[in-house]
Amino acid sequence: MKALADPGSVLSDGLARIRVEMQLPASFPPEVIAAAEAAAKRAPSEHVDRTDQPFVTLDPASSTDLDQAFAIEASGNDLLLHYAIADVGWFVRDGDLIDMEAWARGTSQYLPDGKISLYPAILSEQAASLLPDGLRPAVIFTVRLDPQGSAQLDGAERAIIKSRAKLAYETAREADLPPLLPEFARRACIAEDKRGAARVDVPQQEVVRGADGYFHLRFRPRAIAEDRNAMLSLSTNIAIGQVLLAHHTGLFRTMDAPDERVVKRLRNTARAYGLSWPAQASLAQFQRTLDPNKPREAAFGAAVHRAGNGARYDSYQAGVIPWHVAVAATYAHATAPLRRLADRYVVDATLAIANGRPVPDETAAAFARLSKIMARADALGGRIDRAAIDLAEVALLQGREGETFPAIITDIDERGARIQLRAMPVVSRIDAPGKMPGDAVTVRLDATDLAHRTSQFSVVHQDH
After folding, report:
1. Can you give 174-224 as a three-state secondary structure string?
2. Cα–Cα distance for residue pair 168/174, rounded to 1 Å
3. Pairing of strands 312-315, 427-430
4. DSSP of 77-106, one letter per residue?
5. What gap in Å lies between CA 324 and CA 315, rounded to an integer?
6. How far is it, in rounded angstroms, from Cα 299 to Cα 223?
7. Quick one: which of 342, 325, 337, 157 has its CA closest to 250?
8. Intervals of CATH 2.40.50.140 along the chain
9. CA pair distance 328, 119, nearest whole angstrom
10. How far is CA 233 from its chain centroid?
């Protein structure tokens, strides 16, 4: 799970079982690695020189697959974001061995103890990655942001860049960052609030063993630089989504609003965490009040991510406005081509449109196929996330068999009652005949099984 770290390797055996169960590849076939080694030597020949621009990257300290570098300048009352994106399309050609393997994978997949990359490391962590150790080919999107945070694409070009620094969320000081980044983020937040967006980023979770001998789940506070950096991709992807829609092509990231049953369940989850969700407030309005650096509010944010209908990829359809409810905008993924297959094609299409060229036939044809490919990859990622979360939850409970816990019944379906423990970020199911969603109960932990990632509870009594 992207949002779950295991710094002490306390879940190692369970994570190894997940890799086997999900049939996750341990490496790349030798012929794909050989093709990647050859591709890494491909010299750029269609790129203008932009090495004079002061690009930097901003990522977790441990990241080496750097998709984005950025520079920001003023243009009258507007801000211009020069967003350099790894030019994966320069190294990977349609139908080659690297491409075929990428279509089989769809995305990079993440577990707490490591990732399964979309592309071999010689590309994703070396030749194509925007590291500050030399010149790199990139696609630069220039995004204009007005004082109210409205973003539009001003241009796109293939270019050679040189990153000045690899900055990290954990250690970057204000003086290290481009001076206009805070103002860019402030404007983007204004636009987000105006749209009524409900996007809340969940901080990373870590499983640690406490002094009491039990495992605990703690949330790593999000750095201000991390939130500001997210606004760069968000604004760029919205600007690109608008361009693609206007030209009747593309692949869009979409998500529907949660249905009434999901909202009711989340209201019960909020109650379990002791959060005050006003009856008249929508889920989006309530989400915008959350502080992801407060553990209970962060845990609720994670519950929203798990409970939603899920985002998907939809290719352009005439007469349909693709919409992402959490972003509250038409939105396309373009800024992480080292980690998502679809982004490479969105980048190619946008590059063509921005320079007055027709979208390549192979790119347009790919959009029609990518929805299923990305859905399959997202579904696998969802199963991995759920398995990792289940493993972490059972680890938190181990050794507490026989203890009782206050809980809230958040939902009931054909599989029984879903409960949310009030003092721990743990969801489980129980047999609770006669109980209703919203009921407060005390449950006893009867058993845990780390190997199968399951826990068993029973109701002791109903609370009032």
Report:
1. HHHCCCCHHHHHHHHHHHHHHHCCCCCCCCCEEEEECCCCCEEEEECCCCH
2. 12
3. unpaired
4. TEEEEEEEEE-HHHH--TTSHHHHHHHHH-
5. 13
6. 17
7. 342
8. 404-462
9. 31
10. 11
Fill in the amino acid letter for 121.
A
Q: What is the pLDDT along the chain (464 residues), one digit of tens a residue?
A: 345 667 677 688 899 999 999 999 999 999 999 999 999 999 999 999 999 999 999 999 989 999 999 999 999 999 999 999 999 999 999 999 999 999 999 999 999 888 999 999 999 999 999 999 999 999 999 999 999 999 999 999 999 999 999 999 989 999 999 999 999 999 999 999 899 887 666 667 777 777 777 777 777 777 889 999 999 999 999 999 999 999 999 999 998 888 888 888 888 888 888 889 999 988 888 888 888 777 778 778 877 877 666 789 999 999 999 999 889 999 999 999 999 999 999 999 999 999 999 999 999 999 999 999 999 999 999 899 889 889 988 988 988 999 999 998 888 877 788 888 988 888 898 888 878 888 889 999 999 998 899 999 998 876 65
In one-letter notation, the amino acid at residue 106 is: G
Give CA–CA dist 308/310, Å, rounded: 5
Strands (E), 64-204: 68-75, 78-86, 109-111, 114-116, 136-145, 151-161, 166-168
First to last CA, the chain: 36
* Three-point CA angle 78, 81, 86, nearest 5°: 165
Q: Report the C-alpha gap between 292 and 269 in whole angstroms.
A: 16
In this prediction the pTM is 0.90
Residue 234's CB: how many other CB atoms inside 10 A?
22
CATH of domain 404-462: 2.40.50.140
Cα gap 425→417, rounded to integer Å: 17
Q: How far apart are CA 181 and CA 228, in angstroms?
A: 7
Among the residues of 247-312, which ranges form H helices? 260-272, 283-287, 295-307
Amino acid of residue 230: A
Structure tokens at 299: 């845990």
CB neighbour list of residue 69: distance below 8 Å, 6 or more residues apart = 55, 56, 57, 83, 84, 130, 138, 161, 163
Report the length, in residues, of the chain: 464
Euclidean distance between CA atoms 138 and 128, whole angstroms = 8
